[in-house]
Every structure is written in C-alpha cells, then in structure tokens.
Amino acid sequence: MARDYAADISDPVAGEIVSNVGVWVDKEVVPVASDYEHEDAFPQPLVDGMANLGLFGIKVPEAYGGLDLSFECYAGVCMELARGWMSLAGIINTHVLVGYAIQEYGTEEQRQKFLPRLVEPEIRCALSITEPDAGSDAQAIKTQARRDGDDYVINGQKMWVTNGQRAGVYLVLTKTDPAASPAHRGISAFLVEAGTAGFTSGKKFDKLGYKGVETTELSFDDARVPASALLSGEEGRGFQHVMSALEVGRINVASRGVGVAQAAFDDAIRYAQKRVAFGKPIVEHQAQQIRLAEMATKIRAARLLTLDAARKKDSGVRSDLDAGMAKLFATEICQEVTLDALRIHGGVGYSKELPLERYYRDAPVMVIAEGTSDIQKIVIARNLLRDYPV
Ligand SMILES: Cc1cc2nc3c(=O)[nH]c(=O)nc-3n(C[C@H](O)[C@H](O)[C@H](O)COP(=O)(O)OP(=O)(O)OC[C@H]3O[C@@H](n4cnc5c(N)ncnc54)[C@H](O)[C@@H]3O)c2cc1C
C-alpha cells in the first residue's frame, strides 16, 4: 500500500483506529464488495465485522457503554469504510446520527433506554424526514402526530428511508402543530420503535447505486406511541434537533465522498502505470499526469476540509457552515474523480469486472442525500451573510 490514509488525523490514537479499520477494509471488504453490490445483498458478515470493531458505538458516550471517540476519528473511519464500499458508511450513518440526537437532545429516560442498545448493536437506527411531497423543503412535511391522552397518534407517509427495513428505532419528523408559523415551530421528532402497531416499512427502492443497504417507504396508519417517545419531551423542537444532527450526517457523507474518490484514484494511478499506449505506459503521457495531479489535489483538499469540519464539531460549536462546505466539495469532486478514473481506464473501466463502475454509480447519491448541493450552497451562504451584517 502506497499511502497512509490516516496520516492527516491529528490525534495519534484516533489515527491508529482509522489505520486498523483500513487494514480490515483491505482484507475483508475490498475482495467482496462488488459481489454484494451486484447482488444488492445485505452484507451481514461485514456488518458483524463492523460491530466487532465497535463502530456502531463509536460516538456513544462511555457511560452508556460506547467508545465515545471524536468526530475526527469518525470521519477517518467513514473515509476508510467508503474506500472499501460506500454502502458500509451508509449503514452506520443514520445509526450514529440518531444516537447523537438521543445523546444531545433526548431525555435521560430515552438515553438509558436506547444508547446502550446501539453499541453492540442490539438495535440499529434510521432517520425519517423525507416524504412524497417534501424533501429539501423539510418544513413542508405532512405526517402528523396528534396528542391523545398519554399517547401520540401518528399518520402519514415517508420515503427514502435508509436502513428502513432492518432498523429497531426510527427518528421520525412529524407535525404536532400543522398551523404553526413559522412551520418549524410545529415540528416534533419521535423515536418510533419497530413493531409499533400501525407502523410499517413498505416498498424497497431499486437504486442506481448505494446497494446492499435498503432504502424504503414507511407508513403510519394510526400508529400509537407513548408521549415518552417525543424526543426531548418537548413539542416544537424537532426541526432544530434534526437539523443539528444532520451536521453529523454531512460529515459522514463528505467522508464517503473522500473514500470513494480515493478508491477510484488508487485504481486509476495503478492502471495508468501498467497500461501501454503508443509505446509507453499511459502515465508517461502528460495529459494523464495532469489528470492524476488534478484528481489527487481535489481529494486532498476534500480530505482536509472534511477533517477540519469534524474537528469543528468536536469543539462543541454549531458547524453547519463547515459541514456544508465539506459535504458540498467532497461529494462534487467525488463525481469528477470517479469519471476521470473511468477515462483513465478506457473501455475496461466500463466493465462490471472492475469496481470502477460501482464507484461511478455510487457517487451521485452523495450529491443528493443529506441535503442536495444546492441546499448546501444555501446553508453556506446563509452562514456567510450572518458573518457580514449590513
Ligand atoms: C439513496 C437515498 C437515500 C436517502 N436516505 C434518506 C434517509 O435515510 N432519510 C430521509 O429522510 N431521507 C433520505 N433521502 C432523501 C434525501 O434526503 C432527499 O432526496 C433530498 O433531501 C432531496 O429531496 P428531494 O428528493 O425531495 O428533491 P427536491 O427537494 O424535490 O429537489 C429537487 C431539485 O430541486 C432543487 N431544489 C430544491 N429546493 C431548492 C432551493 N430552495 N433552491 C435551489 N434548488 C432547490 C434540489 O437541489 C434538487 O436539485 C435519501 C435519498 C436517496 C436518493
């Protein structure tokens, strides 16, 4: 292996953990990822391997049995998982994000109830915001939770829920006050457990990439949950809580962009050294050197930007600007780099025998999910304007 992918992690212990995950990825994930992906099969043995490494409890506080590692370490781990197969970092994403929301905003009863079960993991988590008529405009959701005695009754349709079939608990965004203005004041988040009567997981989407992990519809038909399922116990706070947790998701997706781009680059530079055209390896043609130089520069910038955003989150301050910039840049360059890697491979890059076509198909979801690139730009601009008041 030519490069130490953990070299930019500032904390040596975190760097060692990222290195160990990288060794596991090279040994266990790289050889089998395309087979699982082409079959769209859930990679249970790899998920068990991630659990053995403690990755499902990576952000859970030690008091609840987790590893309580830094966001910087988490970003490095996600880069390495995605370097092997992007879907693995997706399987862990909403799990860590929902765990973070419970830890930061849950009641002590909710922390005690769920956090220890996320570590092994006994249960996995999913996040459900998106609906048929509300994606980027999350305040336009229609799913309603109506108070009824000691319970809430939830009705509505959700879609694009990653981990939607196998999760044990779902953080679900609802309206408790549909008439509220501004709308976010009427939005509340609930921790809905699998098996709740009236709550079902529906159609699994057949996707371009991001396979192996299921993305589904959810439906709520008079699904009754106890009032204790309301995150934080307070109505009207769900939108802020979920938006804050999405910073963690954006660090994950940015890291995935870096990991997939790195995998594509590694394959491309090796191939360019072996493939001969016009009497010499193609890497000796200057056009290919320039292409590789541009790819590597973009990946390095994306890696540093992402680790910087993670360190900002570690410092305890809101980091929408940093996480937004990292997510925007890392996922956009991932699209460019995977296409450039295909160009370097010529026709063989288009074959399903090499993992390149998988990187190429996995890249687009990252510019869409967890907030599209357009939405990241809006978030970034809003933050910048706050810093330059007129
Ligand atoms: C594979 C996959 C997994 C997903 N997993 C989850 C999940 O686990 N949980 C969950 O809740 N959701 C999930 N999503 C949903 C995802 O977050 C949404 O698809 C995304 O937020 C975009 O919403 P939309 O699809 O409704 O697009 P729209 O909001 O309809 O956007 C369509 C286009 O309009 C643009 N646009 C919208 N508003 C503006 C604006 N104000 N200014 C400029 N342009 C704008 C968008 O950038 C985009 O280009 C997933 C999606 C995919 C594809």
Descriptive terms for the model:
Butyryl-CoA Dehydrogenase, subunit A, domain 3; 4-stranded antiparallel beta sheet; 390 residues; 3 domains; 9 strands; Butyryl-Coa Dehydrogenase, subunit A, domain 1; alpha+beta; 3-stranded mixed beta sheet; Butyryl-CoA Dehydrogenase, subunit A, domain 2; binds flavin-adenine dinucleotide; 51% helix; 15% strand
Verbal overview:
With 390 residues, this protein is of the alpha+beta class. It has three domains: 108 residues, Acyl-CoA dehydrogenase/oxidase, N-terminal domain (Butyryl-Coa Dehydrogenase, subunit A, domain 1, Orthogonal Bundle); 112 residues, Butyryl-CoA Dehydrogenase, subunit A, domain 2 (Beta Barrel), CATH 2.40.110.10; 148 residues, Butyryl-CoA Dehydrogenase, subunit A, domain 3, CATH 1.20.140. The strands form three sheets. The chain has a four-stranded antiparallel sheet, covered by helices on one side. A three-stranded mixed sheet has the order 1-4-5. Strands 8-9 form a two-stranded antiparallel ribbon. Strand 2 and strand 3 form a beta hairpin. The protein is globular. The mean pLDDT is 97. The site of flavin-adenine dinucleotide (FAD) has 21 residues, from strand 1, strand 3, helix 10 and helix 11.
